[in-house]
Amino acid sequence: MLLTALITLVVSVKWQKELFRDVEIDTTQPPYVFKCQLYDLTGVPPERQKIMVKGGLLKDDADWSTLGVKEGQKLMMMGTADEIVKPPEKGPVFMEDLPEEEQAVSLGHSAGLFNLGNTCYMNSTVQCLHSVPELKSALVKYSHSGRSNEVDQTSHMLTIATRDLFNELDKSGKAVAPMQFWMVLRKKYPQFGQMHNNYFMQQDAEECWTQLLYTLSQSLRSAGSSENPDAVKALFGVDLVSRVHCQESGEESSEAESVYSLKCHISQEVNHLHEGLKHGLKSELEKNSPSLGRSAIYLKESRINGLPRYLTIQFVRFFWKRESNQKAKILRKVDYPLELDVYDLCSDDLRKKLEAPRQLLRDEEGKKLGLKASGKGSTSKDSDVKMSEAEGSSNENRDPSNSTSNEGALSQETQVTGVYDLVAVLTHKGRSADSGHYVAWVKQESGKWIEYDDDNPIPQREEDITKLSGGGDWHMAYICMYKARVVPI
Known about the structure:
Ubiquitin-like (UB roll); 27% helix; 9-stranded mixed beta sheet; alpha+beta; 12 helices; disordered N terminus; 5-stranded mixed beta sheet; single chain
């Protein structure tokens, strides 16, 4: 598909007594995107903006090519900014009067993201990954001059844009327009810039998630820190060991690989996430058999051999339908838990490594319930170490079953246990991968859940999160992200 060439106009905008110079208009994007830019500058929400152009007021979905806006033109805008209520001289301090970065803290959640034209797939991906504090820490350490020869310029710029967008989400008390991030994402991965009838097309959130993580893994690895040579792999990488067996010839071999997510395969037999994960760890492949001298069917059975700090699971809901020549969606309900234990999906070697930390976890949780510790795995440790302190750490050691904190001044060595808590769900509503709507549901540090429906953050109850399991036209889980429950070594 040929993409429309990017045409940028630079104009000035007069609003009240202020004149904003050198405001860029990307004419391949609808005017609503331009209004989001002006919202950042003026505080006037897009729905309140009245911008004069040839023929009347600028409409959100107008075609720039018919409006006659020229380079250097001065546009007039009317509209009132969000009101800020000032407190009495010695009265209480209202949230609206705090600096924006303090407003975000007071709200208990970060800002929403404006939809720039079918960009809900991107917004929901960003909101989920933004909830990972260790990823934000790694990005903060990445500098403009940090690019090495191993990383191309667009990857470097996308990493910078991610870092800056995460920072803006943390500090802003109002919705953010992710203009720079979106422009660089499209430059790095042109498929996200596909257009149809002069509008940007809906894209797959899982593809956006995968591409963004891959880019960050390359950039942050090349930035090189002796403490953490591969931050993204430590945070999200799942090590797999596989047995590849041909029943016909008896040939057998083993393979090792690292992936950033596990797949939950959905069939008539799958009612629960755990069943889907077991299906996802088995596959058939056809390849050449040296002993038979021809191609044969091999069965590949995988086991987890190294666990990350954050376990990402993709529900394989979309498949290619030959008769209609498009992606179709599996609407089947698949339940998933708030607490996930993957011990039975692990290799024998990893299970042995997990025994001691799992016992310590049981002792700690039993202690909270007033039960006596078993004494196994915790005799050499301070039993008063709080689990919440251990959970604040990240995974940095080469041993995938260990992790070391880079958060805060105090370093706390920890081990994963194979037990994970749900911290984010990315859902899709609709029956087609090329349409519908994506939303992020993210657990805050306070334990409360927020639904990020583009620029509208909505508080939710925990019991409502597990209802996103499918079976109809409501939002259903497409990607789940779990955080490791860890114990001190």
